[in-house]
Input
Amino acid sequence: MLAGFAAFLDLYSTQPLLPMLARAFRASNFAVSLTVTAPTIAVALAAPAVGRLADRVGLRNVIVGSAFALAAATLLAATAANLRQLIVWRFLQGVVTPGLFASAVAYIHEEWPPSRAGRVTAAYVSGTVIGGVTGRLLGGVVANDVSWSSSFVVLGVIGLAAAGALWLWLPPEQRRGHSSRAGGGSWRSHLRHRQLLATYAVGFCMLCTQLAMFTYVPFLLAAPPFSLSTSALGLLFLTYIVGAITTPFAGRGIDAYGHRAVLVGALALCASGALLTLIPSLSVVAAGLSIFATGVFCAQAASSSHVAHHAERDRGLAIGLYASCYYAGGAVGGSIPAGFWAAGGWPACVAFIISVEIAMLAIAWRYWTPTSGETADLRFQIAD
Output
């Protein structure tokens, strides 16, 4: 959970700052949205290599090293003198983030049997939610009261403390998963696996919808009739707390009923929440965002657990490839909706989000096979 917290503390911290950054740098909505898109692109590019490295040198080593590197990059982002420099530092933050994201999920599936891996993955996802909420909330409040650069200082210090705690408390993995020395063979095996390919596509769509929602809804709420301040926009991400509370229950559902069943229910929540944001009432929009966030985090737990479940060897690489597709989708979701916003405002963005969710549902329904913790645990014991 602490690794998840550290990974997502900084990744989306500029979302509530976007209107402020647009004013400070006299930049367009698209230009400042690159502070969200740049780290997601970096994660997509770096994740497979980092996952492969974790399989070779150890998951704990990569998790701890990445946590310290991420804290350093966050502190350096506070030194940016213009938007271009800030985007560069944000890109470097993204480069080191996969060491936490991919390695932590692989660590879970090495250390726990499949009958409990779903709920442990859900606990990890709850940690990512708490980290994401903390980063956005503190980022918005500190930026509003002091400056946007001060928000990076605060988050960098917190990240440094989290890295130190991981160094002290995270045990080395006891179960070292099967790792192939033939790196090309592992790549080919993962990229020919139908279940894994379908999960990579689901991950792409998932973060695409999440970033489309939470990158562009601040522009809706900063404008009339809502006219929220930067600090209020940071408080908006408290809607994630509902997801942090409910996601562990989704983990139990994964273990009991399988990944696909949980994903279908989660996508229904996402679509319902997205539609509620069309109602011009702040309380209804907040409720819709809470429902949407809950669906996204339950879907993320199902998808992350699904890819680790189906990777028979080199789990770090398999989850790295998943993270690459996941964050490639985030890059699309962070930038493409700008065109929809220009063409039709927030309703057009919601139409885009729901269309992507329908595609996600179709992929999972066609290619994901029902699984349960009991059958997976039997295969785990036979393999041992």
In short: DSSP finds 17 helices and no strands in the chain. The domain at 2-170+189-383 is CATH 1.20.1250.20 (Growth Hormone; Chain: A;).
